[in-house]
Specification:
56% of the residues lie in helices and 0% in strands. The chain is built from 3 helices and no strands. The longest helix has 25 residues. It is elongated and about 85 Å long. Keywords: Membrane, Transmembrane, Transmembrane helix.
Length: 79
């Protein structure tokens, strides 16, 4: 009689842990034109918001800051 080296009396229990199915799941349904368009519009809105915030914030990142240095020098010259 053919005997396996496994200590489990029921071999199907031991094999169930390493069982792999050869059945593949069906492919996901294709997205409609409206869904693709909505995704593109959301992406463009996010990118536009990031670019806009960068353009609005660039003057604040300027190192020379003409406004505060000009005000300080004019008060120092008037004294």
């Amino acid at each position: 009689m053919f005997r396996r080296g496994e200590t489990v009396p029921f071999t199907f229990i031991a094999e169930a842990e390493r069982f792999r199915s050869n059945v593949t799941p069906p492919p996901p349904p294709r997205r409609s034109f409206g869904q693709v368009t909505g995704s593109v519009l959301v992406g463009l809105t996010i990118v536009g918001g990031l670019v806009g915030s960068l353009l609005v914030g660039l003057p604040a990142l300027d190192l020379e800051q003409h406004g505060s240095s000009a005000g300080e020098s004019s008060t120092a010259e008037n004294r």
